[in-house]
Write a structure and sequence with these properties.
The complex is a heterodimer of chains A (about 160) and B (about 280).
Chain A: H1 5-10, H2 19-26, E1 29-34, E2 39-41, E3 49-55, E4 57-62, E5 70-76, E6 80-81, E7 95-98, E8 102-108, H3 109-118, H4 120-146
Antiparallel strand pairs in A: 1-8, 2-7, 3-6, 3-8, 4-5, 4-7
Helix pairs in contact in A: 3-4
Chain B: H1 3-6, E1 10-21, E2 24-29, E3 45-50, E4 54-59, E5 69-74, H2 78-83, E6 91-98, E7 111-117, H3 121-133, E8 141-147, H4 156-166, E9 169-174, E10 184-185, E11 202-207, H5 210-222, E12 230-233, E13 249-250, E14 253-254, H6 255-258, E15 261-263, H7 264-267
Parallel strand pairs in B: 7-8, 7-11, 8-9, 9-10, 11-12
Antiparallel strand pairs in B: 1-2, 1-6, 2-5, 3-4, 3-6, 12-15, 13-14
The chains are: A alpha+beta (about 160), B alpha/beta (about 280).
Chain lengths: ~160, ~280
């Protein structure tokens, strides 16, 4: 049976990861598919996975009380979403909904959390790879907050 | 032409008005009598004078080979508001074209990455037309465009033509979206990994708010594009448009005369200095 190892090994997130760690991670990975409009997770639910989009598009949304959902970010082919599995109290902070038919690899974050607890080197490796993603996301949110295309911008 | 003549607007008739979005439109004006091809260089601007109100620099957003000047104007101030009230047949004062241009001919043989934010797509559209006119001379062409919301997107009707007819990788993203939007949401730099280009042989052209350009330059450099192959267009308060008045001084340069299009290497020492 074909495993997900070659796919994960090629992904930039896992680049140069020790083979034993990669094998361990492959054991926590599986293929998933989401139909357009299907919610992948909802704000407040337990966060026990993270996802690598193979093909498709996912909207990360927030729904203000009594209002329409607002899309904060979309992720598509090759991108990773979901890092609440690594941050206590391990609950999703946003909703994630497939915008179109989406195929992804899901990784069992709960299992990985346990492994990281047992082997801090693995925890360090994964955090080292997750932090730039969290940082980029924060940076993007800050630029969005600046509203650079608003009426303050003349050109 | 003598400097004195460059300071006097000629009176031109608005031939056509194209509504682009809720606050932006394009005024189509015939160039000066006797103008020959090309009628301007992509990236150049004209000074448009709303009679009795004032004058503003507006980039030319149309095809450099067509005998009509397109000026895409966003209604954000007193003068631009007056200009956006003009109708076909009305008169407008015009001086120009002025300024430097995008390095279209110099980029032949390269991949091209165009990054535009908001109304920054307007001065880049003329470069896109020029690139597509000789499409075979370039490798991959990517247009990455970020806007505030779906209703702020400019020239959206042309994206399919650029994609379908010319094989341009057009990627669009907006900062804020409701549930009906099926496209990308996020900052324009997130689009960069989603297009193909060879960083060693790529020229990048960027236009948008300075914050957006700063982050775009950073990401382009992270991708491996050399700083000297990155071009930006700058904006400051221009008055004379010929480097006399000093209003648009930016470090040792005048945006109107030496720019508005600069190789990034030329402006990078002053980029991000708040006082300039």
């Amino acid at each position: 049976m074909k495993t997900l190892e070659p796919l994960l090994a090629e992904h930039p997130f896992f680049k140069n990861l020790e083979k034993s760690y990669l094998e361990l991670i492959v054991g926590c990975a599986s293929n998933v598919r989401f139909d357009p409009g299907q919610f992948i997770f909802r704000e407040g639910e337990e966060a026990n996975q993270f996802y690598i989009v193979r093909q498709g598009k996912v909207a990360i949304e927030i729904c203000p009380p009594g209002g329409e959902p607002i899309i904060l970010q979309t992720v598509s082919d090759g991108e990773i979403f979901g890092w609440s599995w690594m941050v206590p109290p391990y609950h999703w902070q946003f909703d994630a909904q497939a915008v179109e038919l989406t195929r992804a690899i899901t990784l069992d974050g709960k299992c990985l959390r346990g492994k990281c607890q047992e082997d801090h080197n693995l925890g360090y490796e994964l955090l080292n790879r997750l932090l730039p993603i969290i940082g980029k996301s924060l940076e993007a949110t800050r630029i969005q907050l600046l509203d650079v295309y608003g009426t303050q911008s003349k050109r | 032409m003598e400097a004195a003549n460059l300071m006097v607007p000629t009176t031109r008739q608005v031939k056509r008005v194209i509504r682009e979005s809720h606050d932006t439109l394009t005024l189509c004006v015939e160039p000066n009598d006797g103008a020959t091809k090309p009628f301007f260089a992509p990236g150049q601007f004209n000074m448009l004078y709303a009679f009795g109100i004032g004058e503003v620099p507006i980039s030319i957003s149309g095809d450099p080979d067509k005998p009509i000047w397109h000026h895409t104007i966003r209604d954000v101030g007193t003068v631009t508001h007056a200009l956006t009230q003009l109708k076909a047949g009305d008169m407008v004062g015009v001086r120009g074209p002025f300024g430097s241009s995008w390095p279209v001919k110099e980029s032949r043989g390269s991949d091209i990455v165009i990054m535009a934010g908001g109304i920054g797509l307007a001065p880049l559209r003329s470069a896109i037309y020029a690139l597509l006119r000789e499409r075979d001379r370039f490798g991959e062409i990517s247009v990455l465009y970020g806007a505030r919301t779906e209703k702020d997107l400019l020239f959206a009707r042309e994206f399919e033509t650029w994609r379908g007819k010319f094989g341009v990788q057009v990627r669009v993203t907006i900062d804020s979206a409701g549930p009906d939007w099926k496209g990308n949401v996020g900052v324009v730099t997130t689009l960069l990994p989603r297009v193909r280009f060879d960083p060693e042989h790529t020229v990048a052209m960027i236009c948008g708010p300075e914050v957006m350009m700063r982050f775009s330059v950073m990401e382009l450099k992270n991708c491996g594009i050399e700083e000297r192959k990155i071009y930006v267009t700058m904006e400051r308060n221009m008055k004379c448009a010929i480097g006399f008045c000093g209003h648009c001084q930016f470090g040792p340069t005048f945006i109107c005369k030496d720019g508005p299009v600069f190789p990034f290497t030329r402006v990078s020492p002053f980029f991000g200095i708040r006082e300039i």
